[in-house]
Design goal:
Distance between the termini: 40 Å
CATH topology: Rossmann fold
Strand content: 15-25%
Strand order of the largest sheet: 3-2-1-4-5-6-11
Number of helices: 11
Bound molecules: nicotinamide-adenine-dinucleotide
Shape: globular
CATH class: Alpha Beta
Number of strands: 13
Largest sheet: 7 strands, parallel
CATH superfamily: NAD(P)-binding Rossmann-like Domain
Number of domains: 1
Radius of gyration: 19 Å
C-alpha cells in the first residue's frame, strides 16, 4: 500500500484516478482548490463519493498558497505525488491568461518544491496534447519536437515539462509528465465539447461545431486514461548511464530520471463521428451550428501511445460508441434528463 497525494481530486480526472488507486488498495490524500471555473457543485459531489472510502482524505486549498500545500504534504508524507490540479481549457486561456500563469506555473513550482523536500519515489504531472501545438507530423510522438504552443495554456504546460526536467536533473527526482488527449466520460467537465454536445442534444439546443466539423480528436475514455496513470505510478524513470541506454522511441532524458508519456486512444476520430455516437446514444439528432475555427485551436490531434504500451503493457481501447453510450447514460442520470 502506497500513500499517493493527488492534486485536483475534485476535478474530472483526479476523481477517477483517486477511485482507481483506492480500488488498488492505496491510501489517497487529495488537495483541491474548488476553483469556480465550472460548476463547484459537481466538484463537491465527486469529493463526497471519494470520502465514502476510509482510505481517502482531502484538504481544500490553493496551489499558490505554499504554506497550505506544504503543511498537507509534510503531514501526509506521500510516497508518490500525482499533480493534476491546473487551470485547464484551451479556449478560456484566451480570456483569462493570468489564471494559467498563477495556477500552472506558480502552483506547479510549489508542488515540485514539496516533492523535492520529501524526496518522493515518483512525481507524475499532467501535461497536454496541446503542447504539440502547430506540429503537423502525426501521430504525435513524445520524441517529436514540441516547441510551437498556440495558447498560453499550452505554453504553461510546456513550461511545466521543462520545470519538471530541471528538478529531475538537479535533485534526481523521478518525474513522469503525461500528455493527455481529449478525455471524456462520466463526471466529465461541463466546459468540454462532449459535455456541451450532450447537453445541447438532450435539451434540443443548437450545438456549435467549429471549423465546420473538419476537426479530428484522439478521444480518450477516462477510465482507460486513469488505468494508464495507475500503471505508470509503478514505472518511475531511471536516469540512464549513457545516452546509448535509451531505447529507440523512448522519451527518457539522457541526463535525468525524466520521461514524457502520451496517454491517448491512438485513433484519429472525426468530430462529426463523435457527435453521431452521442446522437445514437441519446436517440436524438443534433441541431448543428457550423462555425469557423477558433483562435488557438488545432484541427487535429492523434496520439502515438506505443511508449505507454511498452512501459506498462497497456493501451487504452474503449471505442467512441461504447464511451459515448456510458457518458450519455451518466449525463441523463446526473442531470435527470
Ligand atoms: N480533460 C482533458 O481532456 C485534459 C486533456 C489534457 C490535459 N489535461 C490536464 O489534466 C489535468 C486534469 O484535468 P481535468 O480535466 O480533470 O480538469 P478539472 O478542471 O476537472 O480538474 C482540475 C482541478 O484542479 C483544481 N484547481 C484549479 N486551480 C487550482 C488551484 N489554483 N489550486 C488548487 N486547485 C486548483 C480545480 O478545482 C479542479 O478540481 C489538468 O492538469 C489538465 O490540464 C486534461
Amino acid at each position: 500500500m502506497k500513500t499517493v497525494l493527488i492534486t485536483g481530486t475534485a476535478g474530472f480526472i483526479g476523481f477517477h484516478l483517486a477511485k482507481v488507486l483506492l480500488d488498488m488498495g492505496h491510501r489517497v490524500v487529495g488537495f483541491d482548490g474548488m476553483s469556480d471555473y465550472y460548476d463547484v457543485d459537481l466538484k463537491k459531489r465527486r469529493h463526497q463519493i471519494l470520502l465514502q472510502n476510509a482510505n481517502f482524505s482531502c484538504v481544500e486549498g490553493q496551489l499558490e498558497d505554499f504554506d497550505a500545500l506544504h503543511d498537507l504534504m509534510m503531514d501526509a508524507k506521500p510516497d508518490v505525488i500525482v499533480h493534476l490540479a491546473a487551470q485547464a481549457g484551451v479556449r478560456y486561456s484566451l480570456e483569462n491568461p493570468r489564471a494559467y500563469v498563477n495556477t500552472n506555473l506558480i502552483g506547479t513550482f510549489n508542488v515540485m518544491e514539496c516533492a523535492r523536500e520529501l524526496g518522493v519515489d515518483h512525481l507524475l504531472m499532467a501535461s497536454t496534447s496541446s503542447v504539440y501545438g502547430a506540429n503537423t507530423q502525426m501521430p504525435y510522438a513524445e520524441t517529436h519536437k514540441a516547441d510551437l504552443p498556440m495558447t498560453i495554456y499550452a505554453a504553461t504546460k510546456k513550461a511545466n515539462e521543462a520545470m519538471g526536467h530541471s528538478y529531475a536533473h538537479l535533485h534526481n527526482l523521478p518525474v513522469t509528465m503525461f500528455r493527455f488527449f481529449t478525455v471524456y466520460g462520466p463526471w466529465g467537465r461541463p466546459d468540454m465539447a462532449p459535455h456541451k454536445f450532450t447537453k445541447g442534444i438532450l435539451e434540443g439546443h443548437e450545438i456549435d461545431i467549429y471549423n465546420h466539423g473538419d476537426m479530428y480528436r484522439d478521444f480518450t475514455y477516462v477510465e482507460d486514461l486513469v488505468r494508464g496513470i495507475g500503471l505508470l505510478v509503478d514505472v518511475p524513470p531511471v536516469r540512464p548511464e549513457t545516452a546509448e541506454d535509451i531505447e529507440e522511441g523512448d522519451s527518457l532524458s539522457p541526463v535525468a530520471p525524466f520521461r514524457v508519456v502520451n496517454i491517448g486512444n491512438s485513433e484519429k476520430v472525426r468530430l462529426l463521428d463523435f457527435i453521431e455516437a452521442i446522437e445514437d446514444a441519446a436517440g436524438v439528432k443534433a441541431k448543428r451550428n457550423y462555425m469557423d475555427m477558433q483562435p488557438g485551436d488545432v484541427p487535429a490531434t492523434w496520439a502515438d501511445a506505443s511508449l505507454l504500451k511498452r512501459l506498462t503493457g497497456y493501451s487504452p481501447n474503449t471505442n467512441i460508441r461504447d464511451g459515448a453510450a456510458k457518458f450519455v447514460a451518466w449525463y441523463r442520470d446526473y442531470y435527470l434528463i
